[in-house]
Amino acid sequence: MDKHVTGAECRLPPLDASLLFDGPLSLIVIVLGVVGNLYSLRVLFRTSINTAMLVSLTGLAVWDVVLLVTAFMHHSIWASLHYLQIAESLWDPWAVALNGLLECAHITSTWMLIVVSAERFFAVTRPFHSAASMRGKPRRPSYARLIGGLIRLPLVLTALACLLTLPCSFEYRLIPCTHNDQTLNQKVKTDLMLNPYYKVLFHTLLLSIMKTFGPFVVITLLTASTVKGLRESMDCRALILLEQGKEHLFAADQDKTRSLQMISVLLLGKFLLLRCWPTAVAVAGVFFGDGIIERLLPANASEFLLLLNSATNSFVFVILKAAFESRRLKRIRMRHRQLVAQHAEQVLSIGKMLASDHILRGRIPSWPSLGSRRKADPEGNANVALVEHIELEQRNSGLSMGSFS
């Protein structure tokens, strides 16, 4: 909208694909995202995981909810009403008032994603430190002090994000316009937003680096290091397990490694497709014109993809991780039942052999002693180790290998 038009006819957005992305599609993503994040918080607080990871995932879910709710009031609900022709009105006052908060929520949510990735990295490379954090201390005043120390980083990141995005609150202003004989307000760009240095250096380059490209590089490095560290650890553990003949534990470790790899690939692919691509297209549009945006991305789909990325963060880290962990434990129990059945068949065959031998000799068969059974079945202690492993997995099946690693 032209800022020099004052008191003119209000220009409502056309009923086209751009309004479809801003309205109904965004509304569906927002509702499902808020419900998913709240459910993830419920799952988090009902499981026993690393305290630092709990704080980080909680911060990520909270800021994703803030982002989605802000987008709901910023444009989604009003665009939906206008697209469905339920109400025909401008929502520019909401867009102007919440523009700074929306940018702050975008950056804080992304930075919390970096913190979660760092916690996963430390959980794999320093498992004993993570285990000590998981045990924690009794719930007494010192525990509150521990929590206070852990939430310090999310609070600092929030303050920095708000300070960085403070100029975004002054990018638009309202001017009066008329619509159906009513005086309304519509937004126009301020002199700050029209300044080419501000638009290119701050709004385009700096915010894109701090909000998208920089975090993507950091998250990629942390995720690659996490997967590499886990594979090296599991390779060393596999040599020991195979040497001891504990193939069932080796298979369980393979399931854990595959689960982490799938989560990591999904996380990076989602971030690249839903966040880096729209941002790169928007940056290209500043330098090469808006025509390139229309060729590379549907109209107004950029904000929709950003919302979809934030709506699915906790789904990947909590809900999907829980599903993988549940499937892994189910496969462990199935292997346990198979091993028990094999052991029972071995004991039964040995008993039949001993009984037939006693009958042929005319002796009364007697049940073999514990020592003889162990000699006859050198793998007799395998079930004990497996049962202990399953009990340990069930106690520590919070949703990860100690801290959502």
Automatic annotation (TrEMBL):
InterPro entries per UniProt: GPCR-Ligand_Int (IPR052954), GPCR_Rhodpsn (IPR000276), GPCR_Rhodpsn_7TM (IPR017452)
Respond yes or no to whether keyword Transit peptide is given for this record: no
Q: Which cellular compartments is it found in? A: Membrane
Q: Which residues form the G-protein coupled receptors family 1 profile domain?
A: 36-317
Keywords from the UniProt entry = G-protein coupled receptor, Membrane, Receptor, Transducer, Transmembrane, Transmembrane helix
- What are this entry's molecular-function GO terms? G protein-coupled receptor activity
Q: Report the principal subcellular site.
A: membrane
Its transmembrane ranges are 25-45, 52-74, 94-122, 143-166, 200-224, 265-289, 304-324
Any one cellular-component term (Gene Ontology): membrane
Q: Does the record's keyword annotation contain Amino-acid biosynthesis?
A: no
Family the entry assigns: Belongs to the G-protein coupled receptor 1 family.
This chain's protein is named: G-protein coupled receptors family 1 profile domain-containing protein
Question: What is the species of this protein?
Answer: Mesorhabditis belari
